[in-house]
UniProtKB/TrEMBL annotation:
Enzyme kind, highest EC tier: hydrolase
Protein name: Exodeoxyribonuclease III
UniProt EC number: 3.1.11.2
SUPFAM superfamilies, alphabetized: DNase I-like (SSF56219)
Pfam families with a match to the protein in the record: Exo_endo_phos
Length: 257
């Protein structure tokens, strides 16, 4: 089974790129972030025509998450991260697909830091960590994937010295990610590629993609049931080089039945 995550940076504006990649890669399950579309403007028919059923949580102009499935039925569990009923950002959606619990997330950026946006990021991280602990306690196969907006180590960022004050790389952010992983999750990319320079995001400016001046901020965290079935993991880096593409590239894993 092939499962992917992709921050599309605007699902309607990047729809040709998304459909081209779906046809090329043929993932079984896909988590999308940054739809940047209200609920009623999501391109459901185009996704269906590509062979996928889908659930989504849209939001005008910002955020937005979706889960696609090519074969198996999607059973929605929730479309908000527990812990703050007043948080109206569309940043989390969770479903069961073919025995897997899939959490698709778009963690806040948090800049400028320090400040209210950074406080919101850390608060959201705390809620995610609490929810992740609950999921692990259920002792079922779980995948938490999406745009975490964190580079866990210096290996995950081009020229880390330039990022020390950024919300994606501040010590508090990296500590929050480590605290989450240390519950018992496996970082799929690092499990299979522990020492390799791998990026998932390249800015549009200063030819970042051409220079490979990237960041690894899109992650797969696997519960023990899933981690032991992990076969391969990678990044479809070439998609970032397509015309009118997202600044992120799709990230994927393959697990055996």
């Amino acid at each position: 089974m092939k499962i992917a995550t992709y921050n599309v940076n605007g699902v309607n504006g990047r729809l040709p790129v998304l459909l081209r990649w779906l046809d090329e890669a043929k993932p079984d399950i896909v988590c999308l972030q940054e739809l940047k579309a209200p609920q009623e403007k999501f391109p459901e028919q185009a996704i269906a025509d590509a062979g996928y059923q889908v659930i989504w949580h849209g939001q005008k102009s910002w955020n937005g998450v979706a889960i696609l499935s090519r074969k198996a039925k999607i059973e929605e569990i929730c479309r908000a991260l527990p812990g703050d009923p007043e948080d109206l950002h569309s940043r989390y959606i969770e479903a069961k697909i073919d025995g897997l619990t899939i959490g698709c997330l778009y963690l806040p950026n948090g800049n400028p830091a320090p400040g209210p946006k950074f406080d919101y990021k850390l608060g959201w991280f705390k809620r995610l960590t609490d929810h992740a602990k609950t999921l692990l306690a259920q002792d079922v196969p779980v995948i938490l994937t999406g745009d975490y907006n964190v580079m866990p180590t210096e290996l995950d960022v081009y020229k880390p010295e330039r990022w020390v004050d950024d919300a994606l790389f501040r010590p508090e952010t990296r500590a929050a990610f480590k605290n989450l992983v240390d519950q018992g999750w496996t970082d799929a990319i690092r499990k299979l590629h522990p020492d390799e320079t791998i990026y998932t995001f390249w800015d549009y400016f200063r030819d970042a993609y051409g220079r490979n001046a990237g960041l690894r901020i899109d992650h797969f965290l696997l519960s023990p049931h899933v981690a032991k079935k992990l076969v391969s993991a990678g990044v479809d880096r070439h998609v970032r080089g397509w015309e009118k593409t997202s600044d992120h590239a799709p990230v994927w894993i393959e697990i055996r039945p």
